[in-house]
Amino acid sequence: MISLHQVSKTFVTSNSRFQAVDAVSLDVGAGEIHGIIGSSGAGKSTLLRMINLLERPDEGTVIVDGEDLTSMTAKHLREARRSMGMIFQSFNLVNNRTVSGNVAIPLEMAGIPKKERSERVREYLDFVGIVDKADEYPSRLSGGQQQRVAIARALVSRPKVLLCDEPTSSLDPQTTIGILDVLKHINRTFGVTVVIVTHEMNVVTSMCTTVSVMENGSLIHTFKADKGNTISSEDLSRMTATQTGVKVGETYV
Ligand SMILES: Nc1ncnc2c1ncn2[C@@H]1O[C@H](COP(=O)(O)OP(=O)(O)OP(=O)(O)O)[C@@H](O)[C@H]1O
C-alpha cells in the first residue's frame, strides 16, 4: 500500500543544514498497523509526513496505492491526498467551528453536496462515539473527545491510509486506551492501513503489526509480529533504550 524508496530530507536554515531522513526505504502492506519509533529527533515525524508529501523528499520516491506521489502535478496530488487521513498530537481542530463543522471540512473542500455532507458527518461522529457533541465547539471538549473529532474528520473522506503523529501523547492512560480502540476498530472495520509515530510502549504492543525503528535519520530495524499478533514487548526489549525511544510510564525499555 505504501512504498518509500530511498527517501531523504535535509532541512536548510540560514546558518545550518540538518539531514532529518537519510535514504530510508520502507514498505507497509495494505491493512497493516505500522509503528514508527525511535528517540527524539530521529526523523520519525518527518518520515511520516513524507508519506502524504506534507514534507516533500529531496530524493527518493513515495508510492501510495500504486501511484507515485513524487511525480504528480499539484492538482493530482491534492486528489491523491484525499485517500490519506492524518491526525496529530495537538488535534489541530478549527476552534471557531463546531464539531460537525470541523468534520465537514474535507467534504466541503471536495465539493460534496450539503445533504450528503450532513449524513456523512453524522455517520463518522457516530462511529467515533461523539455524535451527541455535534453542535459543541472544540474548547468545550476533553482531549480524548477532541481527538475523536480529529479522527472523524480524517475518516470522513473514506481514506485508505491513516497517518497518526503521536495521537495519544497528550492524553491520560485511560483516554489513550479508548483512542487506540477506535484506531483498531477503524483498521478492522474499513481495512484502513494505519501508520503511527509513537513513544508509548502500549501503543506498539497493543496494536502494531509491524514496527520500524529510526535512529539519526536512518531506519535501523523493522519488526514483524507473528501472524495475527501484535509486536511483543520482548522483541522491543532487544533494542536499547536510545534506539527505541519507547517508554513505559517514565521508564525506557
Ligand atoms: N521544518 C524544519 N526545519 C528545520 N529542522 C527541522 C524541521 N522539521 C524537523 N526538523 C529537524 O529534523 C530532525 C527530525 O525531526 P522529526 O520531528 O522528524 O523527529 P522526531 O523523531 O519525530 O522527533 P520527536 O520524537 O522529538 O518528535 C530534528 O532535529 C528537527 O529539529
Automatic annotation (TrEMBL):
This is ABC transporter domain-containing protein. The keyword Nucleotide-binding applies. It holds the Pfam family ABC_tran. It comes from the Bacteria. Residues 2-241 form the ABC transporter domain. Signal peptide: none annotated. Keywords: Amino-acid transport, ATP-binding, Cell membrane, Membrane, Nucleotide-binding, Translocase, Transport. SMART domains: AAA (SM00382). Belongs to the ABC transporter superfamily. One of its GO terms (cellular component) is plasma membrane. GO terms for molecular function: ATP binding; ATP hydrolysis activity. The keyword Protein biosynthesis does not apply. InterPro entries: AAA+_ATPase (IPR003593), ABC_transporter-like_ATP-bd (IPR003439), ABC_transporter-like_CS (IPR017871), MetN_ABC_transporter-like (IPR050086), P-loop_NTPase (IPR027417). GO terms for biological process: amino acid transport.
